[in-house]
Each structure stands twice: as structure tokens, then as C-alpha cells.
Design goal:
CATH class of one domain: Alpha Beta
Low-confidence stretches: 63-74, 355-363, 365-385
CATH topology of one domain: Beta Polymerase, domain 2
Shape: globular
Number of strands: 8
Number of helices: 10
Strand content: 5-15%
Radius of gyration: 22 Å
Structural class: alpha/beta
Largest sheet: 5 strands, mixed
Length: 385
């Protein structure tokens, strides 16, 4: 694959098309295997199971919104399995380990029957109470192949039921907020809202989805090169949507401008305060009060549009500082420069500093290549809806 570092700004669309959106025969095999797997999980109760396992639906997700315990698997795909037997958030939290073990047992038996067109390797469980079932799909007979996809299978409480595409009833979020506070498990149940998150991203224009692929590719490159952890990938995806909604909102745009805007927003991470109210009903006093509490937390704050209990920006300011270093360096690369060497124009999205920048405004000390004075992103501090 061509190296993004050397790609000129005007060639980013071709780079995305040729290298980040391939539809290889292997990926088509994977889609077929995922369909087979989903059908298997839903077809009937598992015979001989120690626990009843009846699946109401299986949803395909992406790396977005992974379980907190799955840090380090940023590029893994997601399958969310909704079980009839999980009827509360508390049951999901405390019983998922046993259900995952049962699903693993059945999948291993299914694998022995060679029902998949790709090789299927289930990873060893790391604890007695696993949060997810992790497995890898790769082309048949190519155990060492680099062309492979990782998957996480999460279990979820089907609180949305048959969602009709409208804003969920306030009672759903009231229950989520109250149980999260009682269980001290804020942000743990985002998988229950996979349908909402999927709808949030599905309605985005194709060009913006391509920019999301580019930002994800950049993030994974940074992840490979840095010595420490970086912010959650999902936060970068939402930041990209934020940049477009506040700066462009047109189906067609210059990809390099969008990419530069995202990098500049990363530089201003200490001032990010972002949320959407597409699914939250702020007319309800309980939801509104809780949301205001979330927005008073230390920044960056980027709330999951489907789950207000989850600040997907995380709490590690050092992780953001590392990514900001990378962003500052990348602003000088050809992908953010015009042919004459001048900077590509950003979209003019503004953020308001909490206070004047200081030498310690990055939040922690990191191995740095960045000068003390960094260019601040131009962005609205206004909340995004």
C-alpha cells in the first residue's frame, strides 16, 4: 500500500478509493461468513446448553463503541448479540460471561463441522468472566496471512426492542441513567444502542464516510508508531462528523480540507465539548439534568450520540497529548499542503479555550517533537446537535 505520508493533498480521494475501500474476494467471503454466523446464532435455542440461549437479533457493527474492556483492538469489527434471557442492564453486566462461554462452545462445535468458507480462530479467554468473544477470520489455508479480520462478539440487553427509527422514549434513557449510576457502570451498555449508532453513521454522505476511512487509517498509523496508548478511535470518528457538521455540511467537499480540520481539532482537544441530541429527549428533567452533569466534566467531552452515559473521549489526557503531537507533525506533510507548499485551508470550525494556553495545557508530559506554541483549531465551542 502507498504510504499516506507521501500522498499529495489532491490525491487523497484516489488513495482512499484504491487502498482503503477494497472489495476483495476475501472480504466478500467474510460478509458471507458473518451472515452464516448470524443465522446460526438466531436459528433456535442451543441444544444441551447449560443456560438457555435464545437470540432475538444479531447486529453487525464496526470498531465504534467497543466495550471498555477491549482496549487495544481498535480495528476489530463488532457483532452484537441480543439475548432474550438478558432483561436488565444488571443481568447483562453480571451474566454475560456465562452466556459468552456457552456461545463459544457452540461456535467451536459449528467450526468443527466446517460450515465456514474462511478459517475461524477463536481466541483464548483471558478471564473467568469474559466481556466478549474474540475471533479472527482469514482466507482458507493461509494461517500466516496478513489479510485477516478480527471480530468481537458482545452480548446486549435488547432495551430498544423493535426500534421504528424515531427518537426513543424518554423512559429508556431514564432507566439507563438510573441503572448506570446504581451499578457504577457509566458507558458500559453502549452495545445496547448499536442500532441508533448505526443509523447515526448510515445517514452520512458517501464523501464523509470516505473521510472517516482516511481518519481511521491515520489513527491506526499513529497507533503503530507511538509508544503509549491513544484516545479511543470512536472519539476520532465522532470528531470527524463534528468537523463536517460544523464546518461544511455539504455532500461534496475537498477531502484534504476535512482531514486538516480534524487534525486541527485534535490539537484543541483540551477544549472539546461535543454532544448530539438526536436521540436524547432534553424535555425530560432527569435526562437534561444528567446531561448537564456530563457536560461539566473535565474536557475533552465527546458524548456518544446513542448513549449519554459514555464520554468516548476517555479520561487519559496523555493519550490525547500523544495524538496531538502526531497531528501537529502531519500538518506539515504533503496531504495537508497545496502543490505550492502552502497549508490546505481548513473549514473554520472554532473552539473556545477555557483559559489562555500555557506550557502545561497539554495535560501531561510526553516525549515531544512539538514546539510550545501550537496552532489552535478554529472551531465553534457551541454544542453540536
Amino acid at each position: 500500500m502507498a504510504d499516506l505520508i507521501a500522498i499529495p493533498a489532491g490525491d487523497l480521494d484516489a488513495f482512499i478509493r484504491d487502498h482503503l475501500l477494497p472489495d476483495t474476494p476475501f472480504r466478500r467471503q467474510v460478509r458471507a461468513a458473518v451472515h452464516t454466523l448470524s443465522t446460526f446464532l438466531q436459528r433456535k435455542p442451543f441444544p444441551g446448553a447449560l443456560y438457555p440461549v435464545r437470540v432475538s437479533k444479531v447486529l453487525k457493527g464496526s470498531s465504534s463503541g467497543q466495550d471498555k474492556a477491549l482496549v487495544g483492538r481498535a480495528d476489530a469489527h463488532l457483532l452484537v448479540v441480543f439475548l432474550d434471557e438478558i432483561k436488565t442492564f444488571e443481568a447483562q453486566l453480571h451474566c454475560r460471561g456465562e452466556f459468552i462461554k456457552e456461545i463459544r462452545r457452540r461456535l467451536e462445535a459449528y467450526q468443527r463441522e466446517k460450515m465456514f468458507g474462511v478459517e475461524f480462530e477463536i481466541q483464548e479467554e483471558r478471564s473467568e468472566d469474559p466481556h466478549a468473544l474474540c475471533f479472527t477470520l482469514r482466507p482458507p489455508g493461509q494461517a500466516g496471512s496478513r489479510e485477516q479480520l478480527e471480530f468481537n462478539v458482545l452480548l446486549a440487553f435488547d432495551i430498544l426492542g423493535h426500534w421504528n427509527g424515531r427518537k426513543p422514549k424518554p423512559q429508556i434513557y431514564i432507566r439507563l441513567i438510573q441503572e448506570c449510576q446504581n451499578l457504577k457502570a457509566e458507558g458500559t451498555f453502549s452495545s445496547c444502542f448499536t442500532e441508533l449508532r448505526g443509523a447515526f453513521f448510515t445517514q452520512l454522505p458517501a464523501k464523509l464516510k470516505s473521510l472517516l476511512h482516511l481518519v481511521k487509517h491515520w489513527f491506526l498509523k499513529c497507533q503503530e508508531e507511538r509508544g503509549g496508548p491513544l484516545p479511543p478511535q470512536y472519539a476520532l470518528e465522532l470528531l470527524t462528523v463534528y468537523a463536517w457538521e460544523r464546518g461544511r455540511q455539504r455532500k461534496d467537499f475537498v477531502t484534504a480540507e476535512g482531514f486538516r480540520t480534524v487534525l486541527e481539532l485534535v490539537l484543541s482537544y483540551r477544549w472539546l465539548l461535543i454532544y448530539w441530541k438526536r436521540y436524547y429527549n432534553l424535555q425530560n428533567s432527569i435526562i437534561k439534568e444528567y446531561l448537564q452533569k456530563q457536560l461539566r466534566k473535565r474536557r475533552p467531552v465527546i458524548l456518544d450520540p446513542a448513549d449519554p452515559t459514555g464520554n468516548v473521549a476517555g479520561e487519559d489526557l496523555c493519550a490525547w497529548a500523544r495524538l496531538a503531537e502526531e497531528a501537529h507533525t502531519w500538518l506539515s506533510y504533503p496531504c495537508c499542503r497545496n502543490s505550492d507548499g502552502s497549508p490546505v485551508k481548513a473549514w473554520g470550525v472554532q473552539v473556545r479555550p477555557l483559559a489562555s494556553p500555557s506550557p502545561h495545557s497539554w495535560g501531561c508530559r510526553v516525549r515531544t517533537r512539538v514546539p510550545q506554541k501550537l496552532p489552535l483549531a478554529r472551531a465553534h465551542w457551541l454544542y453540536i446537535f
